[in-house]
Design a protein that fits this description.
Elements: H1 3-17, E1 28-34, E2 37-44, E3 47-54, E4 58-61, E5 70-76, E6 81-88, E7 99-103, E8 106-113, E9 116-118, H2 122-134, E10 137-143, E11 149-155, H3 159-169
Antiparallel strand pairs: 1-2, 2-3, 3-5, 4-11, 5-6, 6-9, 7-8, 7-10, 8-9, 10-11
């Protein structure tokens, strides 16, 4: 699991929901809003971080409590990571099960750690970005530790512009 993603996720939460306790204005900059997506940048301990994030347009969760939910794509130029797609579920995932994302007719399997999910390979990252650029929505299904299931639908309208803004802000 990439620790920088968790930091970026916290910053995205702060930017998207305005939670000043997670990050201050000095910690991050919202560089644009693009339909359902927003782009951000920040300087962290390991260098500059840029990302695009969105909240679900529709949520269904059969478990108990749930926090904020995001689909994100992050760029870490100082460490050579130009694309990292992640999902924040708002609850602890059952780590023995994969998280499934469907975009159009394509399916993607993410591995889960705590309340986050990531793809295994750079090839999968490239494939999902292509699907996200072409698609209208992403449907993500995950399973909660201790029972429960979530199905979240994310609009992809604005994804391409938000992702390009994040990449440009990080010089990628």
């Amino acid at each position: 699991m990439n620790r920088m993603t968790l930091g970026a996720a916290g910053l995205a939460l702060a930017g998207a929901i305005g939670a000043p306790e997670l990050a201050t204005a000095q910690d991050q900059e919202r560089i644009g809003a693009f339909r359902y997506w927003s782009a951000f940048t920040s300087n962290g301990p390991q260098g500059k971080i840029c990302w695009a994030a969105t909240k679900p347009s529709d949520k269904d969760f059969t478990g108990s409590n749930r926090g904020d939910v995001f689909l994100m794509i992050s760029v870490y130029p100082d460490t050579g990571v130009d694309t990292e797609v992640s999902i924040l579920s708002g609850y602890p995932y059952d780590e023995s099960r994969t998280v499934q994302a469907k975009i159009g007719s394509q399916n993607f399997s993410f591995f889960a750690v705590k309340d986050g999910a990531w793809l295994e390979t750079r090839n999968e990252e490239r494939q999902i970005v292509t699907a996200m650029r072409r698609g209208a929505k992403a449907t993500v299904t995950g399973y909660a530790e201790g029972g429960g299931r979530s199905t979240d639908t994310f609009s992809l309208l604005g994804f391409t512009k938000a992702y390009e803004a994040a990449k440009k802000a990080c010089g990628v």
